Amino acid sequence: MANHSSAKKAIRQIAKRTAVNKTRNSRIKTFIKKVLSSITEETSEAAQAAFRKAQSEIARGVTKGIIKKNTAARKISRLAAKLKAKVTG
Question: How would residue 89 be classed by pLDDT, with cut points 50, 70 and 90?
Fold first, then answer.
């Protein structure tokens, strides 16, 4: 256990940051799931709207340091490919 006040403060800060990051990561995953479900169930307009929201949320995750840039690009690319297959197919 930490004995110095600075170490105790660092522990508090880490706990706060972890909670915020978990919330943000969960939010990104939720938006991705909404896109995937709308692709299978709803109209292409609803799927495109969900994709735009998810794309924005994933990009925000990059700026906040939750996910890496290439990971975000990969996720967006795969969602776009699935959406394109739905719209054209």
Answer: low
